[in-house]
Each structure stands twice: as structure tokens, then as C-alpha cells.
């Protein structure tokens, strides 16, 4: 398995078979996990940074309940939590990725993926039909955005046994694989993030000429955008 996964955040553009408009594909090998996804079976962890007995609270909470559970920890109650994940067999390459992860240059990919997914899930039609050019303009703005106040809180890694990328079991050759999973915990103040997104929405809407129906859809989006964000 290569050290860097094919970026899967693009796949969320087709959630519910709704087509997103074409846009540049980020050159990255990592992705953000969904807010309710942990995708880690603790029973398959065979090694961990600092030893399995000293896993940080945020990571234990994450594998037990996902990002939403981490956001309920006292330290992160007023913050949006993002967790970037990368996996592979090359520990050195993954370590370099984690060390070099930049909240300035890399975090916008995570933020934009969540923003785009939110717009897709709240649309009743294809998002580029329901919101018109506002959808494309907003997504591109999110990818190019500046997210002041973003903090790279922590990095953590584990080693798990897998079957061709799937945890547990044996592969066709009756042998198991061992791969590293690296995680980066990133946070941003909720009030700051909301202010940034609201400004993006205002500027994106001003840059297009939507129909009356599209204007109504964007207004509905604005009213409920942060519910579950």
C-alpha cells in the first residue's frame, strides 16, 4: 500500500447521487474523517505512539465516538474539531507528512470538504442546480480561504493489522498486513469559523446572479448551515 492514499474527500461531492460542479482536485494524500466516523477497531491496534497505555484523551474519545464526541470534551467545547488521517507502511514518510502539515496551506482542504459536504446534504436538488453558480463560487472560495486562528493541536499514530486495507481478517495469501495510521487534530474557534464562512457566503453571493429560486435556496442554507456543522 502506498504511503499516501488517493485523496477521498472528492468522493463526498457525489453524496446522495448529487453532482458537484467540476473543480481542481487538491494534490494531497490525506483526508478528513466524517464527524460521526472513527473507523478504528481498538482490538486491531498493535502499536501506538508512546505505548497503548498512554493514548491521549482526544484519541480515545475519537475512536469511541468520532469527531462529534471529541467536540464534547471540555477543552474543545467552543471549537470545531477536524481530524486529518493518512495511512501507509512507510513510517518515515508519514512522520514527515504530519510534521509538515500546515494550517495555512493544508487545513483549507479539510475545511472546504466539510463546507461542500454541508451544502450538498442540505440541498434537495443537485447542488449546482439548487444554488446555481453560488455553489461553485462558494466551494472555490472555501478552498482558497484563510482560516485565521486554526491550531494544530496534536498528532498521533497507531499501527494496526489489516486485510488489504480492511481491518482484521486474512487476505488472499492467508497473511495479514500491518500499516500505520497517522492522525492530526486541528481546531478552530467556533465563532471565528462561523464569521469566516458567513463572510465567504456574502462575498460568493455578491459575485453571482442567482434566480429567485436559487436566492431562496441560499437563504435557507444560510439559516441552517451551522446545525451539525
Net shape:
elongated
Mean pLDDT comes to: 83
H/I helix tally:
7
The percent range for strand residues is: 15-25%
Task: Quickly give the structural class.
Answer: alpha+beta
Count the strands?
Answer: 6
Order of helices and strands: EEHEHHHHEEEHH
Cα radius of gyration in angstroms: 19 Å
Q: Mind describing the biggest β-sheet?
A: 6 strands, antiparallel
How many angstroms does the end-to-end distance come to? 32 Å
What low-confidence regions span 5 or more consecutive residues with pLDDT below 50? 1-29
- The helix fraction, in percent, is 25-40%
Quick structural gist:
The chain is 37% helix and 19% strand. By secondary structure, it is of the alpha+beta class.
Amino acid at each position: 500500500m502506498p504511503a499516501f492514499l488517493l485523496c477521498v474527500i472528492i468522493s463526498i461531492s457525489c453524496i446522495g447521487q448529487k453532482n458537484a460542479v467540476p473543480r481542481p482536485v487538491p494534490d494531497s494524500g490525506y483526508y478528513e474523517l466524517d464527524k460521526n466516523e472513527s473507523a478504528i477497531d481498538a482490538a486491531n491496534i498493535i502499536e501506538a505512539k508512546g505505548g497503548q497505555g498512554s493514548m491521549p484523551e482526544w484519541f480515545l474519545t475519537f475512536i469511541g465516538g468520532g469527531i462529534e464526541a471529541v467536540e464534547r470534551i471540555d477543552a474543545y467545547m467552543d471549537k470545531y474539531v477536524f481530524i486529518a488521517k493518512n495511512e501507509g507502511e512507510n513510517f518515515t514518510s508519514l512522520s514527515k507528512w504530519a510534521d509538515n502539515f500546515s494550517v495555512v496551506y493544508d487545513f483549507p482542504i479539510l475545511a472546504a470538504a466539510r463546507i461542500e459536504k454541508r451544502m450538498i446534504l442540505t440541498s434537495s436538488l443537485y447542488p449546482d442546480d439548487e444554488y446555481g453558480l453560488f455553489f461553485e463560487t462558494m466551494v472555490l472560495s472555501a478552498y482558497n480561504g484563510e482560516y485565521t486562528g486554526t491550531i494544530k493541536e496534536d498528532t498521533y499514530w497507531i499501527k494496526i493489522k489489516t486485510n488489504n486495507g480492511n481491518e482484521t481478517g486474512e487476505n488472499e495469501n492467508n497473511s495479514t498486513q500491518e500499516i500505520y495510521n497517522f492522525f492530526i487534530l486541528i481546531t478552530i474557534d467556533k465563532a471565528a469559523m462561523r464569521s469566516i464562512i458567513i463572510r465567504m457566503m456574502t462575498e460568493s453571493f455578491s459575485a453571482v446572479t442567482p434566480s429567485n429560486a436559487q436566492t431562496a435556496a441560499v437563504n435557507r442554507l444560510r439559516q441552517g448551515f451551522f446545525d451539525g456543522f
